[in-house]
Design goal:
Elements: E1 2-6, H1 14-28, E2 32-37, H2 42-49, E3 53-56, H3 65-75, E4 81-84, H4 87-99, E5 104-109, H5 117-125, E6 129-132, H6 135-143, E7 151-153, E8 174-178, H7 187-198, E9 205-209, H8 215-225, E10 231-235, H9 240-244, E11 249-252, H10 262-269, E12 274-277, H11 282-285, E13 293-295, H12 300-312, H13 314-327, H14 333-348
Parallel strand pairs: 1-2, 1-4, 2-3, 4-5, 5-6, 6-7, 8-9, 8-11, 9-10, 11-12, 12-13
């Protein structure tokens, strides 16, 4: 198959990692892929370094006429499928399809935020298939009037080979949170819960991995709680497996927007028990009481109780560790590529 991919992000986040996993896997299976992405973006650099064909196009939002024209030109080069990986990519790819007949259109939906407005729904209606990264996202799309038969669920993946054999816990309890520093990630609830458990676990410390627009506000919030000495803001890191080795448990405290969070899978693959809020597809990844703990969103008390249960009971922590290692096998990059490849073949059968 000859496949065109579009990703409009200028930075490197979970979605771009998924695109690179997919590009690698498709090449291994003998398919011809080209990815359109922002000039000098991390995806352009990393895909190019691996010998994947990259076309750099400056894309200024989802209504950029120059980008629409460039994509419509690409459509005339014999691609069978165009896979659009971001919301703006979807807009650009859809509008380009109005200018040039070309490939079948597939779009990934990675977040559980609701669709906005008439145009938001229109571009999804115009796709041949929508790849939702969780059943919860599919449910939200169908609720907004998208044809259920058009929506397939393919969870995002991780590279299990990146994670070494489990080497044991740190000497003192360490709770990690690996997330972009944005309001919808719910860090304040995480810190409130951290304050609560500090009374029973005086030696506990917290690693905050990630960066973002809320960093300054969150640092001030930690100071206002009086726990700044326990909290280590590490910033963005490419060395997630190494950082996870420093953690006893990890927490994802999001209050909205999650799809199929990679950080939960990475933590489980590293043998580190997880707590997550029930947002988007998180509860599809973590089976409550079997491979981790699931709590309601925006509830620092529930987060604190989850932390106390894991930190205070080694046998339970060990059970969740083993459960997570078994569960995460379902989210390998190989499985994701296999399912996506099968979906492409299904799309090509559409008349």
């Amino acid at each position: 198959m000859k496949i065109l991919h579009i990703d409009t992000e200028r930075t490197w986040r979970g979605g771009e990692q998924q695109v690179l996993y997919l590009l690698r896997g498709l090449r291994e299976r003998g398919h011809d892929s080209t990815v359109i992405c922002q000039p000098a973006s991390p995806l352009a650099e990393r895909a190019g370094a691996e010998g994947i064909h990259v076309k750099e196009v400056a894309m200024k939002g989802g209504l950029d006429p120059f980008a629409v024209f460039e994509i419509s030109r690409a459509y005339r080069q014999g691609y069978q499928i165009c896979h659009m990986h971001t919301s703006n990519a979807h807009s650009l790819g859809y509008y380009a399809s109005l200018l040039a007949k070309g490939p079948k259109l597939a779009v990934s939906r990675r977040v559980s935020f609701p669709l906005k407005g008439f145009l938001g729904k229109l571009k999804y209606t115009g796709a041949d298939r929508i790849i939702a990264v969780s059943a919860e996202i599919k449910k939200g799309l169908v609720k907004k009037g998208i044809d259920e038969e058009k929506v397939a669920v393919v969870h995002s993946a991780i590279d299990l080979k990146r994670f070494d054999k489990y080497e044991g816990e740190p000497e003192k309890p360490v709770v990690g949170i690996f997330a972009h520093l944005a309001e919808h990630k719910g860090h304040k609830y995480f810190f409130d819960a951290g304050l609560k458990i500090s009374k029973d676990f005086p030696h506990v410390s917290f690693i905050v991995a990630g960066d973002g627009e809320e960093r300054g506000n969150l640092e001030k919030y930690v100071e206002s709680l009086g726990i700044e000495g326990k909290v280590d803001f590490r910033g963005f890191s490419k060395e997630v497996p190494s950082l996870l080795k420093e953690c006893t448990i990890t927490v994802l405290s999001s209050i909205s927007g999650e799809g199929s969070p990679g950080v939960l899978k990475e933590s489980m693959a590293a043998g580190v028990p997880v707590i997550t809020t029930d947002v988007g597809g998180s509860a599809e990844v973590v089976e409550n009481g079997r491979s981790g703990i699931v709590v309601p969103p925006a509830d620092s008390e529930a987060l604190a109780k989850g932390m106390e249960k894991l930190l205070g009971h080694k046998s339970f922590r060990e059970a969740m560790r083993r459960g997570g290692l078994e569960r995460v096998k379902a989210f390998s990059a190989e499985n994701m590529v296999d399912k996506t490849e099968a979906l492409y073949r299904e799309i090509l059968r559409i008349k």
